[in-house]
Amino acid sequence: MTHFDHERIPERIVHARGFAAHGEFQVYQSMKEFTKADFLQDPSKTTPVFVRFSTVAGSKGSGGELARDARGFSTKFYTDEGNYDLVGNNIPVFFIQDAIKFPDLVHALKPEPHNEMPQAASAHDTFWDFVANNQEAAHMVMWAMSDRAIPRSFRMMEGFGVHTFRFVNHKGESHFVKFHWKPVLGTHSVVWDEAQKINGKDPDFHRRDLWESIQDGDYPEYELGVQIIAEEDEFKFDFDVLDPTKLWPEEDVPVKIVGKMTLNRNVDNVFAETEQVAFHPGHVVPGIDFTNDPLLQGRLFSYTDTQLIRLGGPNFHELPINRPVCPFHNNQRDGYGRQTINQGQVSYHNNSLAQNTPETTPEAQGGYKHYQEKIEGQKIRARSESFKDHFSQATLFWNSMSDAEKEHIIEAFSFELGKVQSRSVQEQIVNMFANVSTDLTKGFAEAIGIEPPAMKDNSVTKSSPALSQENTVHSVATRKVAVIIGDDFDDSNVSSVLEQLNNKGIKTEILSNKLGTVKGNNGLAYEVNHTFLTADSVLFDAVYVVGAAEDKSFYKKAALFVHEAYSHFKPIAATEAGEKLLEVDEMKDSLGVIRGSASTAFASQFIEAIAAHRHWDRQVE
């Protein structure tokens, strides 16, 4: 009973709700020119990794994983030189420029203290009051109001190191670097109405997707990319490369793809691994170093500090999930949870009783040495003037979006600010984001009943196509299709269509009125995976309606299922018996709706429609 009474530990203040998996990383080619980091040298070498994905705002027990929120994307590399933690998000910038503001940001984002509402949501007064009065958040807010904040899957989500780090090579030469994870399946999202329904239908949607994908052998893959700027080019841009609220446009600083990470093993125990893993941006290896990014400097302190209370003391690095794979020796002793049993009488340096061991490993033998940055002048707490520009890159982001993505951003602002009770805060946000785009501001100002401000002079016309999810990879692999079938369905060529879908890596699941077996009019039979009661259209990427014999109950339920999928812009296919469901809203003539007899051509058209992910042109039909 005593043990049971102590089974809970403090949850993370942010990133509390997370899920993780094991995997491996391999570099494509040696990065010797830029860094001496050992795990980035040999293409034949495999480095074990552990990756934790998470939402930011909600508590560990928050209701669902499709909250509008940033997502954590943190990777622990178990290298031969020690652990390297790439602690990132799925958004490349952050709300604030100085770490001292982080407690204020989180206090504003979390449920309001007087009533502890709302959970895992930013749609409330204190968050938007913070934004209005800390306008460096403008760029991050644009990302948070975009489709990036409601990803389809962890497997279809980009990751970013956010901060500017240094690569240091064997010659002691330094380059500035930003890290990217590019999902092989492309970057895709759901729509907001769909996200809210998923939270109700399956609050474990993202972790279930990751778990089942690995269980099925559909291993999630991400390519590691780096943006590199030579030291002498630091001041050649219209932004400060150390400003965490700014990104480096990929058209100006291309992303060099250098390796691939594959997640191929689920955790054995969520608490022992996912909950006890301790990431820290200060866990670096020789060849990777820090910069004077003011937000990064604060995080280098904060992460150790939080693990001390969460994991009970300074020995959290000895927990199995945090333990390096390389041998290490030091003079640290005692403390809560100590697992190493040190032998001998010496626990200090310098010493003669143990021949001066352990001692710091010399750089020539692989020891860590910080980059020696030459500094001239007085060191003061100040930033370059470009840190004061809070809107240019927010406008760049807006300019880079497709028409559908812009509409979703307007809808997101309208929803979030529609939940805000303070008229003053609403007005402040409208005036603030007029500095980003008049079209944006007019769109959501009208929705919340605020008079849009007069047009402001915004000279930023630049865009970055790489920021739009419209320009991502479009793959059908692992997409889930609900196949709606009832008894006495027309089974001619159905098996051929399903075979073609499965051959492309598409997952087909049979859905009907009841569990058991459904039989076609020629004897073909399928085992039913779901009923209309246990599944919902929001849990699938596309719908294939085979139909049934005359069954009013079947078609009534199927009609609701198909109509909802259609309203979320998903691909829909229907053969003759199922076409009757397409009469509503003139679905049969819409983009992404495939109909006709089951055939090779029918299947090919459906596969092409699935690859598109969503058919956004329906928004203006």
Mean pLDDT: 94
Characterize the main sheet. Answer: 10 strands, antiparallel
CATH class categorisation of the largest domain: Mainly Beta
Poorly predicted runs of 5 or more residues: none
Q: How does CATH name the architecture of the largest domain?
A: Beta Barrel
Strand content: 15-25%
Cα shape:
globular
- Structural class comes to alpha/beta
Q: Please, how many domains?
A: 3
Number of contiguous helices: 15
Total strand count, please? 18
Identify the CATH homologous superfamily of the largest domain.
Catalase core domain
Estimated radius of gyration: 27 Å
User: What is the CA–CA distance across the termini?
Assistant: 63 Å
In helices, the fraction of residues equals 25-40%
CATH topology grouping of the largest domain: Catalase HpII,  Chain A, domain 1
Fold and architecture overview:
It is a single chain. The chain has 621 residues and is an alpha/beta fold. It folds into 3 domains: 2-144 and 154-318, Catalase HpII,  Chain A, domain 1, CATH 2.40.180.10; 389-470, Catalase, four-helical domain (Hemocyanin, N-terminal domain), CATH 1.20.1370; 474-620, Rossmann fold (3-Layer(aba) Sandwich), CATH 3.40.50. It has helices spanning 2-5, 102-109, 125-133, 138-144, 192-201, 205-215, 270-275, 294-310, 392-400, 403-418, 423-433, 438-447, 494-503, 552-567, 600-611, and strands at 18-27, 47-55, 71-79, 82-89, 159-160, 165-168, 174-183, 221-230, 256-266, 288-289, 480-485, 507-512, 516-519, 525-528, 530-531, 542-547, 572-574, 593-595. Strands 1, 2, 3, 4, 5, 6, 7, 8, 9 and 10 form a 10-stranded antiparallel beta sheet that branches. Helix 13 (494-503) links the parallel strand 11 (480-485) and strand 12 (507-512). Helix 2 (102-109) packs antiparallel against helix 3, helix 3 crosses helix 11 and helix 13 (494-503) runs parallel beside helix 15. The radius of gyration is 27 Å and the shape is globular. The termini are far apart. The relative contact order is 0.11. The model has no long low-confidence stretch (mean pLDDT 94).
